[in-house]
Write a structure and sequence with these properties.
heterodimer, A: mainly alpha, 2 domains, 13 helices, B: MetI-like fold, 0% strand
Amino acid sequence: MHTNYILMAIVALAVIPIFLWAYLMITERVAARVGKKAATVLRPWFWILPAVSMLIIFLVYPVVHTVVLSFMDARSENLVGLKNYLYIFTDPGMLVVLRNNLLWLVFFTLVCLVLGLLIAVLSDRVKYESVAKACIFLPMAISFVAAGVIWRFMYEFRPAGTTQIGTVNALLTALFPNFEPKAWLFDRSTNNIALIVVGIWMWTGFAMVILSAGLKGISEDVLEAARIDGAGEIAIFFKIILPLMMPTITVVATTLIINVLKVFDIVYVMTNGNLGTEVIANRMYKEMFNYRNYGRASAIATLLLLAIIPVMIMNLKRFNAEEKNG
Amino acid sequence: MQRKKMASKSGSVNTGWKRVLGAIPLHVVLILICIAWSIPSLGLLVSSFRPKSMIATNGWWEAFKTPFSFTLENYAYVLTRGNMGRSFMNSLLIAVPSTLMPIFIASCTAYAFAWMRFPLRKPLYLMVVALIVVPLQMTLIPVLRLFNKIGLTGNFIGIWLAHTAYGLPFAIYLLRNFISQLPKSLIESAQIDGASHPTIFLRLVLPTSIPAISSLAIFQFMWVWNDLLIALIYLGGTPDVAPMTVTISSMVNSYGGGWEYLTAAAFISMVLPLVVFFALQKYFVKGVLAGSIKE
């Protein structure tokens, strides 16, 4: 069974480039047969056909289909109108889900941006910049699943009075003798924030890298002129650096928002959405596999798409503007 | 580099002592943040080498007190009995084709979008740009049904196809951006010399696009390697084909507090990304910079 897969992988790796090369050659022959004019018309279609057909099968058609399913019942047999959407916005469990996503959206995005900007600005002024940045960026390389294990261990809880093996509780009890160790992931008042911290730990590096690149783009002359005029570093940051960085900050913020809306792995590994920590993507997974309700699952997915459409439009506008300038 | 020189020059405006003292809070804050960011991974790494009895009774920082007590047993266990050896192979078998296939397919499409003129070129390309941010959740049910019908669930062919298709919009976008920046004169002079489009693409465009392709390859590889959702959905729960992310998440459920195994398993899954990260940091960061409109 396994050797089969190894063979298949090797064959796939060898065959695909050869197949693609042969495809380009054969279509070029075909194009040559039909004459030069027809060839220039036909050729582009041959070239984009493999990708476009895959996009239609795996993305365009499924998106349309999911929207249709969202108006149908659990087994996709009868139309039920807006019933699934009504459920999303009235069911008490769903309201908790929406609240959690809002919590994620606000805290995750803001903290990632502020910390990312802070680290970018601070590390820009020290000699060990690359080391500092590597420390912050490293979590980007690992999976949410591994991060989930890492942080479950950080949050590990032992009853008060016994030795704490989780770093968070041990540190807090050492610093504040009166501190009662907490079961961070089980306590309903802390568990959502505890999960969001994991997300922040992973994604601040992303914000920092992009913001740092934007920061390096600011001309040193402008800052120097302000310093000569007697502006303090803090005034320079708020009056010059921040306004100039706005476009970059917008890009980072939209990327963070797209990601945070789809957050799934952290919650799946750390709490599996129990104890009031469920978010949209986890609820959709449950509706799909545990409750087998394809109508509701589709409606939840469509809600996600609706939330992302403004970002999509922004991207398209930005792309159009870039094309006109370039 | 430039900036640092300038900064130290401007420092001479203040007197030396004042500057040194003023810089202390900056260093303290930055170093504290860096330590806070590193401790979680460090704790995991240290714990994965500690014997079971120690992990459960005291904190990982106690490992640095004598007598030292480290072991490789946790790794031996998860690699043999814990299914992590096979899962590592599975992750590799899923990730490598899922990285290379979209690059092959996207590169010729990107070339067509950049250097050929045809009707619907712009609307089709706008579709690609729009698809970059579509939540994959929107595709899961129909694609799963399709896979069920033609027997592609629970095996690698299905997941290769899915990852390839999901990676295409961003791959096309990134490569087109790069390929369309190539000088027009380069392509035109090749055409005047009688080179056909396939020749220009294979001999000229692909070799010059290696930097963009490397960034893309790293980005896509990390994405597939670290993916949990797609693997859960299209591979189901079969341990035979499960990649490491799926195996670890089911270990979390079954072992609960079995930290000696969980820490070792998590670290095994991190090794390859960390090697890629440290060896190819420049390309990785570039990929992230370019990918700032994706995911």
